[in-house]
Specification:
Mean pLDDT: 95
CATH architecture of the largest domain: Alpha-beta prism
Radius of gyration: 22 Å
Strand order of the largest sheet: 21-22-1-23
Shape: globular
Number of helices: 13
Distance between the termini: 6 Å
Bound molecules: uridine-diphosphate-N-acetylglucosamine, phosphoenolpyruvate
CATH class of the largest domain: Alpha Beta
Structural class: alpha+beta
Strand content: 15-25%
Helix content: 25-40%
């Protein structure tokens, strides 16, 4: 298991450059399965979720090349048969296999899906996905080591309403409806920037998709789609992570490739907390301008709200703000487990079952610890920590980099699910650490 020994207390300063978003790139790779010809995806990062999806596509016969500078070509011409995929070997830590359903049903009439990975930040059921697929006419059978899907009468457009604007379920609809017969109308859709970029890709392939106000997406099914050529949307979650790292370590980080528009909500909060930023043509500079950081009350939400994936890095910065901050996590019921390690390092964080600081959410009156009160500023001291999940792991690393003394952080490989060249970036920012496998 990989381990980093970090000597903290040194501000992170310098430049990091982003590639495409993990939450878009992996879905764009699956979309290539819908095309008759090859696709090209630019700015594809070398992260482990991309590796996992590459392996799954290759198992199905897709030819993939990925150059050093991030150009990925995907040729699905030889996709021949559905495969039962070994859960441990291939689904790994990724949630993407569930999105293979629609494209494989269109292409092969059958799909086998292994159990899913992803961060353990809640129960993360896939009931909406299956309900959506049944609406299109899919038949679903649970097997011992996964799920088998078939479409004996083909896939037909449907009127679908999601009980919650789930990102994955919206993508499931898009990837299935584009080649289904007839019209699909999805209400209650998620409208994250990564979903809009997936829609742009599908449109390049020949799909007809319109996005109305009030979360309604309409798709007119077409018989065939071509390949695409696309530059992936930048990773706004990685951008927000480095922005928080700059605040927590009293640093100054230029994030190349970050753009204002997809980060408006984050930038508003960053400014309220006392962080400074300068928006340039080729990226955003995030820095601690000196003085006290300020506490904040916020709740995470679906887009255009404050993204849940920003919450964990922000909490570390808030341990250095003067006063009480309140965070109400409304997207996942169990995303505060990572704070135990921060408390061990000297942070004052209390977790509550109640919906604090905002409106009641789906998790209120239930036994979920989904609100946090952070009291600061608290000096952080070194500790031995184990990375629990992707963003929690990033936060732990930042806490260790901000803390006085030498920390040992294990299970660090999880961070490579979503941060390309993580160790190189830390080196470029002047971090003091050693790494061992
Ligand atoms: C690979 C990827 O893109 N991951 C992102 C995606 O995850 P993912 O697509 O898994 O997240 P969803 O938007 O689907 O999940 C949101 C909520 O809906 C619930 N739900 C979802 C599906 C379902 O069938 N039943 C159900 O109850 C989930 O448990 C969760 O509470 O969107 C999340 C919310 O922006 C982000 O945090 C993740 O980084
Ligand atoms: C929760 C996340 O990812 P995933 O859905 O891939 O687990 C994340 O990126 O923070």
């Amino acid at each position: 298991m990989s381990q980093i020994t970090v000597t903290g207390g040194k501000p992170l300063k310098g430049r990091v450059d982003l590639k495409g978003a993990k939450n878009l790139v992996t879905k764009a790779m699956v979309a290539a399965l819908l095309g008759d010809g090859p696709s090209v995806l630019k700015d594809t990062p070398f992260i482990s979720d991309v590796e996992i999806v590459s392996r799954l596509l290759q198992l199905h016969g897709v030819k993939i090349e990925h150059t050093e500078d991030g150009v990925m070509s995907l040729d699905p011409s030889n996709v021949a048969s559905a495969r039962m995929i070994d859960i441990d070997a291939h689904a790994g830590s990724s949630r993407i296999p569930i999105l293979f359903c629609g494209p494989l049903l269109h292409r092969l009439g059958e799909a086998f899906i292994p159990g899913l990975g992803g961060c353990h930040i809640g129960d993360r059921p896939i009931d909406y996905h299956f309900e959506v697929l049944r609406n299109f006419g899919a038949v679903i059978e649970e097997l011992e080591n996964g799920t088998r899907l078939s479409a004996p009468k083909g896939l037909k457009g449907a009127k679908i309403s999601l009980p919650y604007p789930s990102v994955g379920a919206t993508e499931q609809v898009l990837l299935t409806a584009t080649r289904a017969e007839g019209l699909t109308e999805l209400s209650g859709a998620a409208i994250e920037p990564e979903i809009m970029d997936l829609i742009a890709i599908l449109q390049k392939m020949g799909a007809i998709i319109s996005v109305d106000t009030d979360r309604v997406i309409r798709i007119e099914g077409v018989k065939e789609l071509s390949g695409y050529n696309h530059r992936a949307l930048f990773d706004r979650n990685e951008a927000a992570s480095w922005a928080c790292a700059a605040l927590a370590t009293n640093g100054d980080i230029f994030v190349g490739g970050a753009r204002q528009q997809e980060m408006t909500t984050f930038l508003n909060v960053y400014r309220k907390v006392g962080g400074a930023f300068e928006i340039e043509d080729d990226g955003i500079r995030f820095f601690h301008p000196g003085g006290d950081l300020k506490p904040v009350v916020l709740e995470t939400d679906v887009h255009p709200g404050f993204m849940t994936d920003w919450q964990q890095p922000l909490v570390v910065a808030l341990t250095q703000a003067k006063g009480l901050s309140i965070i109400h996590e409304t997207v996942y019921e169990n995303r505060f487990g990572f704070t135990d390690a921060l408390v061990q390092m000297g942070a004052q964080i209390q977790i509550y079952r109640e919906c604090l600081g905002g409106t009641a959410c789906r998790f209120g009156q239930r036994n979920f610890n989904h609100s946090a009160v952070i009291s600061g500023p608290t000096p952080l001291h070194a500790a031995d920590i184990r990375v629990p999940d992707l963003r929690g792991g990033f936060s732990h690393m930042v806490a260790a980099l901000a803390a006085k003394g030498t920390s040992n952080v294990t299970n660090v490989q999880l961070i490579s699910r979503g941060y390309e060249h993580f160790l190189q970036k830390l080196t470029d920012l002047g971090a003091d650490f050693t790494y061992s496998e």
